[in-house]
């Protein structure tokens, strides 16, 4: 019995129980090792005239024996000698593949120089196409997560001898002479016994192995073959009658290739039809609708990677739930590393699906996470720009399609601006759409500004529960009457998004192109829209002062519900309107109050409401008459009715609907 080199027992125990978090990846690791062995043989055939192979014959075979409870991985690759078995499997963390990659790079450098064309060297272009996966020398030992014993039988290319390495992963290993008809390697894993908590039987089933191959190793470049069970229809013999005339079904077995081999994301976009992209998306990402957009990326340079991204045609049902997990499938050398790598997407592009494949990533020893996130961040930044550019093109080239996309995912983009406190506005702001009261369609902020009157310095919006009601609000109709557009916002995130934006675009002040300022984004319910002339302000202030006593009675009657009662500068037809001071609107406060647990949390922001009255409306004359007659009870009743009426116009239910109804009834007597 040979002992493992290094502090073997401690290290091997660490490998089996600590490095990997998911025991099913043992199959991924063994297939990757087999792929490397086949690649090494192919490379040898390019550099050694004595080795002749047909690349079409290179393959990996997976088998199982449910009764014996074994899983077998076989390849017809380069194989190992007795010494190589001892060196590669007896020395933990020794990677023959890593050494091979280094030697290959050195060999390629020797076979060419600055004056040599690649075509002058035999197979030089193919040399660079050999994609070795392994690099740590520990993947093999993942087999002990599911196996109580592992047996490796290998015969090196050009050798007449085969050798068997065998170990239980505890006491050491043995190497003995064995039999194998051809070069290559067999890895036989004897599954552990089932326990009350764990069952290993699924690893010795056709369905279990097929699922793992497709999940982790679907794009390994060599065919992964396995004997599978099929069924076929058998026609009744000619002349048969009765039940015998009915066709029957029989089962049979055949060797099938389980994996797809060639990743669609590595093919040039010009070589792939949209139908192929659509089918890949629907199959791999379990959607029944075609994607709205397909983005293919092939990057070469300081960081090499391939990416295939999709914008879904509809939002997944759980997109806005706390359980939704964003991320792209991350591959390294065609082998799945992570199903959803969250770091590759910002939250505001969480709806994007797809894959990223790079052999340049520095993986950790388990190949389940990354050693250095700097590489990942660099890829993420580039993908973010690609997604933004594609969405901008979508907006400009297919407006109808983009508006359908925005119905599904616009909330995510808006929330991205709010969540980033406006830091993401350079990326997202020009992708936003809002409904225009003036143009009566969805428009971008740039389109709003293109239609703004000369001298405009603000973008106006109103927030409520429906476009129809908003379009008829007194404050909206007043702004529209002055020639300005108003964005009608009906989603709860809209006001938070627009407040986080704060400003957008630039305009020349007084026509001076050297003096430019951003357009302010203003709620029509804000205290100052900048649309009132100095004369109008002066008249309103004088009217407020002359009616101070009346307004004092009304403010007292409202008992803190309104901070001020003033004469309005912006009303034309309505008797009264509620505005706010301090940046918190009525609608925003309603949204905050509606959040789960808001009442228990407390700490709602303070809101200072102002009841603005139209001094040209008959109701105002009635108020003045009641006050002059000394009927302050009527003034108080009017104050409450006007306040609740203004709330209803905003789409907000009064605190005491019954009191409001009774006050109206009393007024009608």
Structure overview:
The chain is of the alpha+beta class and 669 residues long. The strands form 4 sheets. An 8-stranded mixed β-sheet has the order 5-4-3-6-2-1-7-8, covered by helices on one side. Strands 15-14-17-16-19-18 form a 6-stranded mixed β-sheet. A hairpin with a 4-residue loop joins strand 1 and strand 2 (70-75).
Features:
22 strands; 669 residues; 21 helices; 6-stranded mixed sheet
Mean pLDDT: 86
**Low-pLDDT ranges:** 118-130, 132-136
Binned, the helix content reads 25-40%
Instruction: Give the helix/strand class.
Output: alpha+beta
Between the first and last Cα atoms, what is the distance in angstroms? 107 Å
Number of separate helices: 21
Classify the beta-strand content into a percent band: 15-25%
Radius of gyration: 37 Å
Overall outline: elongated
**Main beta sheet, described?**
8 strands, mixed
Question: In which order are the strands of the major sheet placed?
Answer: 5-4-3-6-2-1-7-8
Q: Count of DSSP E strands?
A: 22
Sum this structure up briefly.
The chain is an alpha+beta fold.
Q: Could you give the topology of this structure?
A:
Layout: H1 8-19, H2 26-47, E1 60-65, E2 70-75, H3 82-90, H4 96-110, H5 124-127, E3 147-155, E4 162-167, E5 173-178, E6 184-191, H6 206-216, E7 224-234, E8 248-257, H7 274-284, E9 293-299, E10 305-311, E11 328-332, E12 335-341, E13 353-357, H8 373-397, H9 399-419, H10 425-428, E14 434-436, E15 442-443, H11 445-450, E16 458-463, H12 467-471, H13 474-481, E17 486-489, H14 494-501, E18 503-509, E19 512-523, H15 534-546, H16 548-558, E20 564-567, E21 576-581, H17 586-594, H18 598-601, E22 608-613, H19 618-628, H20 632-649, H21 657-668
Parallel strand pairs: 1-7, 11-13, 16-17, 16-19, 20-22
Antiparallel strand pairs: 1-2, 2-6, 3-4, 3-6, 4-5, 7-8, 9-10, 10-13, 11-12, 14-15, 14-17, 18-19, 21-22
Helix pairs in contact: 8-9, 9-14, 16-20, 20-21
């Amino acid at each position: 019995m040979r002992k493992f080199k290094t502090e073997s027992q401690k290290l091997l125990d660490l490998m089996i129980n600590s490095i990997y978090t998911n025991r099913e990846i043992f199959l991924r690791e063994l297939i990757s090792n087999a792929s490397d062995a086949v690649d090494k043989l192919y490379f040898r055939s390019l550099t050694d005239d004595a080795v002749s192979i047909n690349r079409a014959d290179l393959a990996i075979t997976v088998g199982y024996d449910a009764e014996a409870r074994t899983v077998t991985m076989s390849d017809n690759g380069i194989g190992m000698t007795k010494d190589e078995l001892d060196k590669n499997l007896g020395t933990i963390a020794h990677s023959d593949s890593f050494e091979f990659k280094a030697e290959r790079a050195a060999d390629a450098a020797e076979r060419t120089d600055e004056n040599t064309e690649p075509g002058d060297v035999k197979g030089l272009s193919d040399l660079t196409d050999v994609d070795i996966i392994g690099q740590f020398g520990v993947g093999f030992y993942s087999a002990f997560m599911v196996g109580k014993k592992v047996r490796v039988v290998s015969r090196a290319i050009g050798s007449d001898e085969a050798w068997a390495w065998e170990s239980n992963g505890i006491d050491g290993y043995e190497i003995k002479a064995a039999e194998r008809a051809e070069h290559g390697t067999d890895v036989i894993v004897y599954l552990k016994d089932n326990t009350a908590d764990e069952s290993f039987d699924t690893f010795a089933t056709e369905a279990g192995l097929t699922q793992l191959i497709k999940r982790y190793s679907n794009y390994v470049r060599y065919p992964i073959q396995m004997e599978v069970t099929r069924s076929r229809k058998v026609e009744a013999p000619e002349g048969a009658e009765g039940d015998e005339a009915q066709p029957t079904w029989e089962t049979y077995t055949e060797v099938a290739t389980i994996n797809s081999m060639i990743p669609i994301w590595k093919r040039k976009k010009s070589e792939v039809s949209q139908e192929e992209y659509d089918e890949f998306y629907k199959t791999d990402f379990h959607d029944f609708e075609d994607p709205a957009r397909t983005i293919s990326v092939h990057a070469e340079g300081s960081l090499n990677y391939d990416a295939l991204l999709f914008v879904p045609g509809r939002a997944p049902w759980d997109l806005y739930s706390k359980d939704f997990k964003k991320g792209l499938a991350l591959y390294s050398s065609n082998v799945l590393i992570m199903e959803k790598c969250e770091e590759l997407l910002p939250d505001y592009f969480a709806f994007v699906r797809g894959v990223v494949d790079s052999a340049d990533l520095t993986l950790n020893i388990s190949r389940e996470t990354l050693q250095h996130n700097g590489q990942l961040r660099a890829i993420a930044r580039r993908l973010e720009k690609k997604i933004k550019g594609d969405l901008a093109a979508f907006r400009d080239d297919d407006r109808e399609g983009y508006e359908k996309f925005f119905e599904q995912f616009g909330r995510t983009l808006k929330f991205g601006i709010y969540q980033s406190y406006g830091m993401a506005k350079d990326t997202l702001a020009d992708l936003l759409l809002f409904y225009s009261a003036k143009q009566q369609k969805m428009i971008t902020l740039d389109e709003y500004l293109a239609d703004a009157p000369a001298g405009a310095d603000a973008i106006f919006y109103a927030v409520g529960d429906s476009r129809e009601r908003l379009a008829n609000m007194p404050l909206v109709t007043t702004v529209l009457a002055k020639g300005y557009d108003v964005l009608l916002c009906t989603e709860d995130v809209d006001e938070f998004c627009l407040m986080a934006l704060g400003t957008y675009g630039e305009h020349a002040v007084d026509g001076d192109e050297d003096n430019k300022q951003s357009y302010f984004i203003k709620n029509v319910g804000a205290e100052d829209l900048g649309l009132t002339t100095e004369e109008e302000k002066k008249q309103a202030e004088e009217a407020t002062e002359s009616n101070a006593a009346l307004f004092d009675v009304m403010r007292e009657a409202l008992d803190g519900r309104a901070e001020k009662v003033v004469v309005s500068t912006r009303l034309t037809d309505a008797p009264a309107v509620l505005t706010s001071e301090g940046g918190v609107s009525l609608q925003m406060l309603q949204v905050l109050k509606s959040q789960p647990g808001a009442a228990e949390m407390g700490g709602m922001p303070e809101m200072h409401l102002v009841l603005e009255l139209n001094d040209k409306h008959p109701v105002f004359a009635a108020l003045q008459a009641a006050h002059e007659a000394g009927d302050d009870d009527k003034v108080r009743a009017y104050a409450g009715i006007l306040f609740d009426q203004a709330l209803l116009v905003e789409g907000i239910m009064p605190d005491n609907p019954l009191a409001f109804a009774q006050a109206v009834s009393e007024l009608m007597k």
